[in-house]
Amino acid sequence: MSGALLAAWRAVAFTWRLGNATVRAATAGLVGMLVGFVVFAVLGQFAPKGWGDVVWSGGILLSGLVMAVLGFLAAFRRPAPPDVMGSAAWMGQRELIRELAAPALATDPAALLVGRGEGRGRVFGPLLRHAGSAHLLTVAPTRSGKGTGTVLPNLLLADRPVVCVDPKGENARIAVRARRRFGPVWVLDPFGASGQPAACYDPAAVLDPASPDLADDAATLADALVFDPPGQVAEAHWNEEAKALIAGLLLHLACRGGEGRRGLPELRRLLTLPPREWDALLRAMAADAGAADGLVARAAARQLGKADREAAGVLSSAQRHTHLLDSPRLAVSSDIRNWTVSPRRT
Question: What transmembrane ranges does the database entry give (predicted)?
């Protein structure tokens, strides 16, 4: 008996997975009849004399009919969307209004404008704003209005810190006056594209020798200076060694650099020293075991330990990647004697 029931259950499970509405209805009806067979066989024993067979057969038919209808309806139930690749979905109009057009968002000065809801006729839809911590991405073809529709409105209205990459200087020209209502505004523009007074900033000059993140900060800056495109396997060794050398020099400047001589122009000057002075610098760094917990000495020893040809190649690679620092405009823009950018928002 148990073997027959197990076989029946496996057959039901197999046919249910076929997904066809008729098959599922028939399967559910069969299950209902089997359940009704057992249940109403018991109940039929308590029925009045002569009604036992009626209750039993009627119960089987009723159970089968109910289960068949339920199985048929279940076949047309919309399945839950798969979440293997994530559970993101497009918002409906009601969700859009509830999440992005709430009255609280309209009065939040830091909320970002992300668009406008659908309107009716000549009536514009409500402005949509976002004040959460999730990342926002605007994707549209060139010259389709990303700047005028998204970037500029937020620069003009959002009372929050903003870092804006503006190669043409258009956003700075339009929004710099409005941004000053919210706090200080600095335009890093060494080439004068925006027509605004240019601020001065040198990322190497803010390396703090007392910070536990000094080594990581120097490595990050070195990685930004060395252009290392993927796929160039032949240059990988020279680029990685150039990064290590530049990071060691940045640590040396952060710990031992004099006033006004800790930035990127000084880094470039050290990398272009005459051979004798360069060798003397490396030996002085190698003897400075106390700078940056010994990392300066390690970087110098790493360079001094290379064969002449390899050492010359690493130095040449570091010089090549920092050649842009010879630009007089960049030198003025990173001159910390004219530093105008504060590391904190006021």
Answer: 23-43, 55-76
Q: How far is CA 151 from CA 138, 140, 171, 213, in A?
A: 10, 13, 8, 33
Residue 219, CB-side half-sphere exposure with 13 Å CA sphere: 11
Residues recorded for the chain: 346
Tens digit of pLDDT for each residue in 148-176? 888 999 999 999 999 999 989 999 999 99
C-alpha 312/C-alpha 303 separation (Å) is 9
Domain-by-domain residue ranges, the chain? 2-75, 98-114+145-199, 203-338
- Vertex 131 angle, CA 127 and 137, to 5°: 80
Coil, strand or helix: which one is 116? strand
**Gyration radius of the chain's alpha carbons:** 36
Closest CA to 282 of 267, 268, 266, 299: 299
- DSSP, collapsed to helix, strand or coil, labels residue 114 as strand
pTM across the whole model: 0.66
